[in-house]
From TrEMBL:
CDD domains: GH18_chitolectin_chitotriosidase. Pfam families: Glyco_hydro_18. This is Acidic mammalian chitinase-like 8. GO terms for molecular function: chitin binding; chitinase activity. Transmembrane segments: none annotated. PROSITE patterns: GH18_2. It comes from Homarus americanus. GO terms for cellular component: extracellular region. GO terms for biological process: carbohydrate metabolic process; chitin catabolic process. Keywords: Glycoprotein, Glycosidase, Hydrolase, Signal. Residues 1-371 form the GH18 domain.
Length: 391
């Protein structure tokens, strides 16, 4: 159970504020602190020194994070470098030059050791794209090899977060060459649809929707996982990525509120995450419970969506308890290494919508381990199919 932690959640308002100490270190096997970056000197860079470090009256985020192992000694703590906002150019330039690569690797190991991390998680989004060059595909493997060797020599691990889209996989990754130079591959099987499209759809659908056609048939979790496996990655090195947030649109016509409804703009920002086009699960479930937002599980689908006209004609796709049961069982059946969540700080960590804190993350972990007792109802199972006719 890999749990990413968005360190900027410390700056959220009211009940959205989430500190390192709010993480329950007994739910996850791996916790990943995001993000570090890469500096102009090609060294790993601390992006928020006041929050991450102790110097100059800082908040000591790194050290507090690795101190979670004092509560659970089996917990693996990692630092993630990269992310979408970092882009690709600086990583492309560094990986193309052996001397620059060595500077990055050496500085990374030093930083991890200094703060007691157990490994690195690399999120280069993406080799060959977003400012990258074709040579990135080969250079990415070289970079992984050097990191893997240096980290293992120091008793640490290397994991990567990778794209779920077929077009990106084809260009960015030499999958067979990756196998021996990474310990775990976290597949970002979310943001498969979103408000950058002008129609509604589920951002993390397990199987293709009945009206999907053409390239949209590739935009589902099942396709992505199978594509990684068929490409040569052992299933036992893959995690299925699960979003603990919803992707939201503003409906053009409130009378049209199903899949593929016209929606020209992102959904209104939530009160805690304050970002157009997305809401944390904690925000969505709170609106559903308190403001009676309509919840629908379309026939043939395994995930819910919700809409409400009083909140700006909003429509959000998201994951719930029952969809987490289904997808954790899917991961078991596919013999995957486990599951990954982005990010734990938008789960229902205050237990406003459930009888327990972090219900979605707990449900994923427990179901995957075979210990989930709060099973999905039979009627819900009958309405949420296994997708065998859509594979």
């Amino acid at each position: 159970m890999v749990c990413y932690y968005a360190s900027w959640a410390t700056y959220r308002v009211r009940d959205g504020k989430f500190e390192v100490e709010d993480i329950d270190p007994n739910i996850c096997t791996h916790v990943v602190y995001t993000f570090a970056g890469i500096g102009t000197d090609n060294k790993i860079e601390v992006l928020d020194p006041w929050n991450d470090l102790c110097a100059n009256w800082g908040k000591c985020g790194y050290n507090r994070f690795t101190d979670l192992k004092k509560v659970n000694p089996k917990l693996i703590t990692q630092l993630s470098v990269g992310g979408y906002n970092e882009g690709s150019t600086s990583y492309s330039n560094m990986a193309a030059d052996p001397a620059k690569t060595q500077i990055f690797v050496t500085s990374t190991v030093e930083l991890l050791k200094a703060h007691g991390f157990d490994g690195l998680d690399l999120i280069w989004e993406y080799p060959t794209q977003r400012g990258g060059v074709p040579a990135d595909r080969k250079n990415f493997i070289t970079l992984l090899g050097k990191l893997h060797e240096a980290l293992h020599a120091s008793g640490m691990i290397l994991t990567v977060a990778v794209a779920a889209l077929k077009s990106t996989i084809d260009q960015a990754y030499d999958i067979p060459a990756m196998v021996d130079v990474v310990d775990l591959v976290n597949v970002m099987t979310y943001d498969l649809h979103g408000p950058w499209e002008k129609y509604t759809h589920h951002q993390s659908t397990l199987y293709a929707y009945k009206d999907d056609h053409g390239d949209t048939l590739y935009l589902n979790q099942n396709f992505s996982i199978n594509y990684w496996i068929d490409g040569g990655m052992p299933s036992t090195k893959l995690t299925l990525g699960m979003p603990l947030y919803g992707r939201c649109w503003t409906l053009d016509n409130p009378d049209q509120h199903g899949y593929n409804a016209r929606a020209s703009h992102p959904g209104k920002a939530g009160p805690l995450t304050q970002t157009e086009g997305m809401m944390g699960y904690n925000e969505i479930c709170d609106f559903i419970n308190k403001d009676s937002w309509t919840v629908v599980v379309e026939e043939g689908c395994n995930e819910p969506y919700t809409y409400n006209m009083a909140y700006g004609n909003i429509w959000c796709s998201y994951e719930d308890h029952d969809s987490c049961v289904i997808k954790a069982n899917y991961a078991r059946e596919k013999n995957l290494a486990g599951l990954m969540v982005w990010t734990i700080d938008t789960d229902d960590f205050h237990a406003e919508c459930s009888t327990r804190h972090f219900d979605l993350t707990r449900t994923l972990a427990e179901t995957f381990a075979g210990n989930e007792t709060r099973r999905i109802s039979q009627s819900m199972l009958e309405s949420r199919i296994d997708g065998s006719n859509l594979r």
